Amino acid sequence: MAGGWAELSMDLLAMIANRIESPKDFLFFTCVCTSWQIATTPNHKFDIFFTKTPLLMLADKHDDCREFYSLIKQKVTPLFLPEARQRYCFPSEGWLCTMDDTTGEMNLLHHLSRTQIQLPSRDNLMASNGLGDEVFWNLLEHAILSASPCVTSDYVLVVNYHANITRLAFWRSQLNKY
Questions:
Q1: What is the pLDDT of residue 57?
Q2: DSSP state of 105
Q3: In what order do the strands lie in the sheet with 116-119?
Q4: Which residue in 79, 53, 74 sits closest to 64, CA to CA?
Q5: 86: phi > 0 → left, psi -120 to 50 → alpha, else beta; which?
Q6: Rounded alpha-carbon distances, angstroms, from residue 104 to 6, 28, 78, 169, 170
Q7: φ, ψ dihedrals at 140, nearest 5°
Q8: Radius of gyration of the chain (CA)
Q9: Of 124, 89, 125, nearest in space to 109 by CA
């Protein structure tokens, strides 16, 4: 092979990545080289195996790892995920909607490739509904994606939050605002 392992086609690498069954093996796959990691990003239509495997993300232990419990294997697997440290996480379509309660920063995080999509902040969410600082912000309750950003660039994030009363907000990827 003239070019070596780094020169394999993205289509072939994505096909291989789609056959990986364990989070640990997937992480090893992405560590081989940059091109192998790139093959697992949304641009290459990587089909996240976590959407096929029921997993529960366990509570934050205030370190750079998050633990996932596999219902099928009845086993806990730690994943290095510093982007989720001390953030609220809401899973949907193989992604995590994360929110930093201190800064209000919000992102979509692909927990395997660690790709992040920045969302408008919690402050922008509040302002979009005519709510200012005087409103008691209680919590973000749910965040649901209409489709995986790995599959389409045109998706909607629905956010259910509580600010004096329960509210819904919609964020469309093409518009980048609530």
A1: 85
A2: -
A3: 88-92, 95-99, 106-109, 116-119
A4: 79
A5: left
A6: 39, 33, 26, 15, 17
A7: -90, 125
A8: 18
A9: 89
User: What distance in Å separates the CA atoms of residue 168 and residue 13, rounded to the nearest whole number?
Assistant: 39
Residues with Cβ < 8 Å from 121, sequence gap 6 or more?
103, 104, 105, 106
CA distance 109 to 61: 18
- Integer Cα distance of 173 and 22 in angstroms: 30
Residue 117's pLDDT is: 94
**Are 69 and 56 spatial neighbours (Cβ–Cβ below 8 Å)?**
yes
The pLDDT value recorded for residue 49 is 46
Distance separating alpha carbons of residues 129 and 137, to the nearest angstrom = 13
pLDDT tens series, the chain, 178 aa: 456 888 888 888 878 877 777 766 776 777 777 777 777 765 555 544 444 566 788 888 888 888 888 777 788 888 888 999 989 999 888 889 999 988 889 999 988 778 899 998 888 877 776 666 655 555 788 899 998 887 788 899 999 887 777 888 888 988 877 7
Tokens representing residue 9 in the block: 């086609």
